[in-house]
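Reviewers of the previous submission asked for a worked example of the structure-prediction workflow described in the proposal, so we include one complete record here. The input consisted solely of the amino acid sequence. No template or homolog information was supplied to the procedure at any stage.
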Amino acid sequence: MIQIIHSSVKGRARYKIKELYHSQCLKTYLERSLVNYSEIISVSANVLTSNILVFFKQDISYKKIAFFIEKALSDYQDKAGFIDVKTLAKVTQKDKLTVSNHEQKTENWHLMTADNVLQSLNTSNISGLSSITANKHLNKYGKNLLSTTVTRSEISILTEQFKSLPVALLGVAAGISIFTGGIIDAVVILGVVGLNAAIGYLTESQSERIINSLKNRSEKSTWVIRDNKLQEIPTENVVLGDILVLKPGSYIAADARIIEAENLSIDESALTGESVPVTKNTISLNSEDVPLADRLNMIYKGTLVINGQGIAAVIATGQFTEMGKIQQLVSEATTTQTPLAKQLDQVGSQLVLISMGLCGLVFGMGVLRGYNLLAMLQSSISLAVAAVPEGLPTIATTTLALGIRDMRKNHVLVRSLNAVEALGSVQTICLDKTGTLTENKMSVVEIVTDSKHIQVTDGEFIAGEETINPYTCHELLKLIHIAVLCNESEVSQNNNGEYRVTGSATENALIHTAISAGVDVIKLKEKYPLLQTNLRSENRNMMSTIHDTNNCQQMVAVKGNPAEVLQVCHRWLKNGEIIPLTAEDRQKMEIENDRLAGKALRVLGIAYGYREESENNNNHESDLIWLGLVGMADPIRKGAKELIANFHQAGIDTVMITGDQTPTAYAIAKELELNRHPQLEILDSNNLNNLTPEALAALSDKVDVFARISPSNKLQIVQALQASGKVVSMTGDGINDAPALKAAQVGVAMGKEGTDVAREVADIVLEDDRLETMMIAVSRGRTIYNNIRKSVHFLLATNLSEIMVMTTATAVGIGEPLNAIQLLWLNLVTDIFPGLSLAMEAPEADVLNQPPRNPNEAIIKNTDFGRIVFESAAISISTLAAYGYGISKYGISPKASTLAFMTLTSGQLLHTISSRSEKHSIFSKEKLPSNPYLNTAIVGSFGIQLLALAVPQLRSLLKIAPLNIGDTAVIAGGAVLPLLVNEGSKKIN
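From that input alone, the workflow returned the following structure tokens.
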């Protein structure tokens, strides 16, 4: 059904077609078919508003045009050359074509003329390829598909949970227990391994599902010319030599050489990092080594048509496109192990050596003393099991899982457990400019009128320290009105009053500025109906529109290159009056234009004028009234400057990587205060390509900004920083960022505006694109590392105390204070929950004021071992004293063993309090923040220990005896004394 919306202006009418909503296919079909009528001049359809705007000869009725549209609609399905995409898209497994090994010809297409390109590809810009030739190419080169990035499967996520060295040690310990008859020991150890795997699997698989749910739906169809007809075909069936039909809002299906272009502009930010859409042409280039971003006669797969129209000949498909080459870089880039994973493996290796050494030592001493050979073998193996902290994998996994949960509350999706901690150890953050530091959309940031310099920020107009209401400033309001009228963007409003603006980035920015000024854009356009549009041309870099004013005059609205617009102005609006524009005034405006351009802004001059309705000449762009300059930029994200300052305060170096020109990159870096040193250092890709890997590694640490960078350059930069010993994080949102995202220790992608390729290889995805949440992640990562370090310190100190007790007793010859099952029980009660509670300590106050730690530094430093030995010795001596008391009173018996068992368990539980801080003690005046998890863990573990005494079955299993009041007092004294000694020694240190 067709509804006529606007038909009051002769030769121009707007219609609403409900079938047009979100139908790119119908839009293109209507635009191409309706212009074949001689009565119709031009057609523009909008899939968001369902409107179609038609310009036609003024002597034709708008009702006749409506009849043409109805006929086109009825012919839509049956029109010759139209192919049902949904049917074609259903390709069975049998019909699928594999990617062929045939190489596609690689030429310097940008150096060739359009005619030579067509000749080389054996195609025609009028008839395109024949269906027979297209099928031959499809069979030869394969479908126009990129290899899909392999995502982590459920099985791979699960198996990764068993790949750490500490978990392997527990598996060996369980095997030894089974071999020596300790089935119960083995079951408990394997239970711990299973719990660890379950926590890691559930956390990571949930993150993976959320990240995969963010994937965009790519366009399934493409319009091409084949067999001399316009056809819509599945994108995967586009082949070498196809003629692509380019229209606004459509994604480019393959790499192609432009054959015809009419005001064609392409958003290439996802591929090149250029934030401003690129105006394309057909002119051949002269230099072979022109960067992708400067190849103005080429278009690339995955980029977006913003404005204009044209046709292009496909020169590469699938894996041979620039996007395909980037995916190849992604597959070649290798992931780097995170610092925590390395350090936990290092601790595991140390424990293997310690366990083997202790086994041999205890076994040797026992044999020399004449103990039973089998008994000594079992005891030494039990001691080796005791040396492995069963709680270490579970504590690390659970702590990281809780970190992921907290991050999710802040819309930060973490793909793997170690990525949380790794972000806390990052020393250099590489920040992609477009879409990461900036919003990847144009915004008006500054306006210059008669004598005012107006900054535009968050919808406010500020001159100096004064906030201006545009409705009280005639010059500003007039400039905004003209910018709205001389504008091709489509504007609609939904039921909630929210505006929907579709058009080029530049024109959309002008509309949004007007909306923020309180202008009713739709009513303004209705008040001044559009009569004529004069678009920019090759030798005329400005646009003008002519509007009806209902008073026998027509208004001319102009915007464009400031120098050209200023040249056709003879008057200007100053202080509410129209006065002559003097040479001095012109010079001032030229200086202002240079100033804005020097800030890397895109500058437009705005002017207007009037002409009589009777005037039929085309010289309407003359004797205009100058209004002012509008400076636009891809605005810096809110909070980005503060974030950079926070990174610097946290000791993290920041590096900006961009595809933009050096002046633009410099201006943004200065605004962000990116440099930590007085001089901002910039390196251009032209200089980068001449450096050896060694020279780049040496230089990369000194550079603040890398400009004019390609995807492979980004990967080079990340790898160079890693080669210089840095832990590197890379942030990005585009296809061009993917290789570097994968290679960095921590890849961070945008969730809302980012591309699927970037999200699939990143470790962390910012779901709402808020870059400032990275600071929360850094804080969380550092806290997690500090807390895991506290837990490891606690586990090593308590496990070493068990070893000291057993080794000393064997050496002295006073029997075995603890049996094998008691050792395992001890580890389970004192390792997991107390250790986990330490890992849940609150962040330290200065966590973000400290520099990142050295990634090569062990989680337990050499200086820590002396402290660990001292703390273990205090617990061991106290336990041996209680055991000695038991022997003197009860002999070498279960009663004496029970005293040692209870004293050691209680001493280890209280040692949790001492492990909360290396410097702060219970005697310090300032108290540590409360940790309710620690209190619960200590009380709960003491409760479990008391159950072992109270429940006969557990008492029998552990081979422990009842205790009297005197024994209880000895145990209490033996547990509290080490705590006092260890806490008191902190003060001395």
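Confidence is low (pLDDT under 50) at residues 79-100. We consider this example representative of the routine output the project will generate in years two and three.
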